[in-house]
Amino acid sequence: MLSHPEKAYLQALMAVRRKDYMSAARFFEQAAPGIKNNREFDLLRETNRLLLAVKRELDSPNVESSIDIEEKYSHG
Amino acid sequence: MSRTDNLKAFEIVLESFLERAVAAKEKRLQVAQGINRLEQIDSRMTSGVDPVDRLGEWFADHNRWLEQENLKHSDIDRIGRILDNIRNELDLENDESPASRKISSEIDRWQLASPQSTQSLVLKRGPEAAAEGDTVADFRKLIPNIGQLFEQYAVSKLHIMSVLDETLRTAELQKNKEALILSAFIIYYLKTGGYKVDPYVMRLKQAEKALEEDDSDA
Known about the structure:
- The complex is a heterodimer of chains A (76) and B (218).
- With 76 residues, chain A is mostly helical.
- Chain A has 4 helices and no strands.
- Chain B is mostly helical and 218 residues long.
- In chain B, helix 2 packs parallel to helix 4 and helix 4 packs antiparallel against helix 5.
- Classes of the chains: A mainly alpha (76), B mainly alpha (218).
- The interface between A and B is medium-sized, with 28 and 22 residues.
């Protein structure tokens, strides 16, 4: 039988393939306790986590306004 | 370049990396999905779901694996075990329905086409014989001896691997069977702790061979 961590890893990869990064993150977290010393797994999990952080930042309403404020101050 | 542009560029890089990483694992992913699907069929049989149709679909989708080289030995073994289990659960030997016969022949075809899956190591021994001694008592006597041996080698050692190094050396040079058994015990202990034990297993085999040669000379 595929173990629960193996199944979760598989589901994470399938979620990445369909670009459902939120679900992938959830499955990576489920798989993590049972997958030790697997650098490939760690790399994919962290990359997915970073990608979600970037997407969150891009969705944030403050992403451009903070730059606008800096511009206003710099020109007096 | 604005911060947003940078973030978007970074987003593209990360997505592209993940896409290529998963694409590189595509074959393994398909195999894992296929095995997972077969396991689901097997597990649902216990809840009374008739698996014949779903098994037929599985064979239709995956028999091409037999002509390809996507499968590792461990995959073939795994599939073989699941199919054996399914065959037993379905009681195919006593079921003469056309669908069951078809499934049975598909399982046979799979196992014939993948001979690795049917190969197994069978350890056999003769019937219990009192004349050969009391194995339980022998093993009971062995345990404290191995414990003492361990204590002897563990003195001033900081890591269990240093102890293992000593026990392996003793097993090989002195042809000491108790040291050999203790080495095997420690190796298995390390293996369960996630250590790489391959080099020690090789040394264990060498020590075992030396001991066997010594026994045959005696």
